[in-house]
Specification:
alpha+beta
Length: 318
């Protein structure tokens, strides 16, 4: 388990050693963060008896979704953002669960969250001095780190639209399938992130200042915009997939038409050569020296006539 505890006291931030008990005084702010912690480790690491059992279960749950619930005079906040490293199952997002109670915040994540190091640096530099600052910092950091990824997905869809051509059908289908799966994965958590922040803004707690609410609303608005962009990406990707399917069907129709034209050309020729190739007596001009080349010439003229007929019907240009 990885952990750190920071105490803000008299405009100074002190790192509390692991295992050292610390009770924040009035006006202080204590933040304890734990990564890859299970229930037993978290119980032993948090020397605090007023954490409700439902909160403890939520902090160490293996599967979570973004949420915000007020429990008494505290708040349980769960957000999801980009991880430091992508998991083995391909999941690039990880949740940060935080219990905010009074002047103390306990946060837990199953894997490393990219925004944690940024918020930690802000805390150590003195930019964060209360729970509202910390929650607003996490909201801004997570939304700010996810926005470029969503923009990148939109740019990839733009690139696919510009490369839409029958010669790139199979390559584009693989790219579009990847984009759609990524958009679905992001959409699954970005909309709940937005909803959680909207609920957070409406909480009746004394540790959220007006400036904190402003930053949280800004992050919620960014999450809302990203959710709308993901919905547009998904619809555009679906439309591109339909266009590629139409192009593929059209390509198959063209090839089938060419095969049909070739078959129609050789159909009368096959009949003539099969008729003259019968092993029976009485075939006209069988003993003439010019008969073979005569049949070849006749078949050539017949093939050209059939080809010209197809050309007049515009079958060769479809």
């Amino acid at each position: 388990m990885k952990s750190f505890t920071l105490l803000h006291h008299d405009d100074a931030v002190t790192a509390i050693a692991e295992g050292q008990a610390c009770v924040p005084a009035e006006g202080d702010f204590l933040w304890g963060h734990f990564e890859q912690a299970d229930g037993t480790e978290l119980d032993s690491a948090i020397e605090q008896e007023d954490i409700p059992e439902v909160v403890m279960r939520a902090l160490v749950a293996s599967e979570t979704r973004p949420r915000c619930d007020q429990i008494g005079d505290g708040a349980l906040i769960n957000l999801r953002g980009p991880a430091v490293e992508t998991a083995s199952d391909g999941d690039s997002l990880v949740s940060i669960r935080a219990w905010v109670h009074g002047n103390r915040v306990i946060s837990v994540s199953r894997r490393g969250l990219a925004a944690t190091s940024e918020v930690e640096q802000m805390m150590r530099s003195g930019a964060i001095s209360d729970p509202g600052d910390l929650v607003a910092a996490f909201a801004k950091a997570i939304s700010g780190s996810m926005d470029p990824q969503i923009v990148s997905l939109g740019d990839e869809v733009d690139g696919c639209e510009s490369e839409l051509d029958a010669r790139n059908i199979y390559q584009l289908r693989r790219r579009i399938a990847t984009i759609r799966s990524e958009a679905i994965a992001f959409r699954r958590f970005i909309a709940p992130d937005r909803d959680a922040l909207i609920v957070l803004v409406g909480l009746k707690v004394n540790w959220l200042a007006d400036e904190d609410l402003l930053h949280i609303r800004e992050a919620a608005d960014l999450f809302a915009r990203m959710a709308e962009e993901l919905e547009a990406i998904r619809e555009r990707a679906a439309l591109l997939h339909e266009q590629l399917t139409d192009l593929r069907a059209e390509l198959i129709d063209q090839r089938s038409l060419m095969i049909a034209v070739v078959a129609f050309i050789f159909l009368p020729l096959t009949f003539v050569t099969g008729l003259l190739g019968m092993n029976v007596t009485g075939i006209p001009f069988a003993q003439e020296r010019w008969a073979f080349w005569g049949v070849v010439g006749f078949c050539t003229i017949l093939g050209l006539v059939v080809l010209a007929w197809f050309g007049m019907r515009h079958w060769l240009r479809r």
